[in-house]
């Protein structure tokens, strides 16, 4: 299937979740299609932000900045500044991050003096057709939640749409657990990210 076909499948699934007739595609120039198209990327970004997806994971060494961007004031306690990747959606881990102080400020990572800096992060440069079905399912549920205030009249159904999102996230979490060893690789305590994504 093409990228457009997969995007259309996410669109159709979102409307099916709401039990509302879908537009033919994002490009059929109908009010429904335009409204959904304007919220599609947000649904994808929410899905990416919500979890450290194995299919959207990158490790990168950061370049040290000679100076901060214009208008930014240097932190006297965190004197090194590192440029974060342009495709970063959410930073997941700073390697050796327990050995020094650091802080993310906008698109810059500040730290105590270091020779090198390496991070793991979720990136935006995905192709939906190459993402697992569980990702597309969560994205469709996020899109349904974003669209439901306009297209779902019943309060009960709106709550059901939100509850279905929680279930989809939990199922995707179980699926993706099998792509890495069971122990967390960032030394953090386990957090129920499905609960975080819906309620946090």
Features:
alpha+beta, about 40% helix, about 200 residues, disordered C terminus, single chain, three-stranded antiparallel beta sheet, 5 helices, about 15% strand, four-stranded antiparallel beta sheet
Largest pleated sheet: 4 strands, antiparallel
Q: What order do the strands of the largest sheet run in, or round the barrel if closed?
A: 2-3-6-5
Give the distance, in angstroms, between the N- and C-terminal Cα atoms. 35 Å
How many helices?
5
Q: Report Rg.
A: 20 Å
| Number of strand elements | 7
β-sheet strand percentage: 15-25%
SS content category: alpha+beta
Tell me, briefly, the overall form.
elongated
Note poorly predicted spans.
193-200
Determine the mean pLDDT.
88
Series of secondary-structure elements, N-terminal to C-terminal: HHEEEEEEEHHH
SSE topology:
Blueprint: H1 3-18, H2 31-49, E1 57-61, E2 63-64, E3 80-83, E4 88-94, E5 102-105, E6 108-111, E7 118-123, H3 133-151, H4 155-176, H5 193-199
Antiparallel strand pairs: 1-7, 2-3, 3-6, 4-7, 5-6
């Amino acid at each position: 299937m093409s990228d457009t076909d997969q995007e259309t499948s996410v669109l159709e699934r979102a409307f099916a979740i709401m039990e509302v007739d879908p537009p033919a595609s994002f490009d059929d120039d109908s009010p429904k299609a335009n409204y959904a198209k304007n919220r599609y990327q947000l649904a994808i970004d929410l899905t990416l932000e919500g979890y450290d997806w194995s299919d959207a994971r990158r490790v990168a060494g950061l370049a040290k900045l000679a100076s901060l961007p214009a208008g930014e004031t240097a932190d006297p306690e965190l004197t090194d500044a590192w440029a974060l990747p342009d495709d970063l959606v959410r930073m997941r881990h700073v390697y050796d991050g327990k050995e020094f102080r650091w802080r993310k400020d906008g698109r810059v990572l500040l730290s105590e003096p270091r020779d090198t800096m390496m991070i793991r992060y979720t990136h935006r440069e995905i192709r939906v057709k190459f993402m697992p079905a569980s990702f597309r399912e969560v994205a469709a549920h996020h899109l349904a939640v974003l669209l439901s205030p306009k297209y779902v009249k019943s309060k009960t159904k709106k709550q059901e749409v939100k509850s279905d999102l929680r279930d989809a996230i939990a199922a995707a979490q179980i699926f993706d657990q099998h792509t890495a060893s069971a122990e967390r690789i960032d030394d953090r305590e386990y957090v129920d990210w499905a609960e975080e994504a819906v309620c946090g």
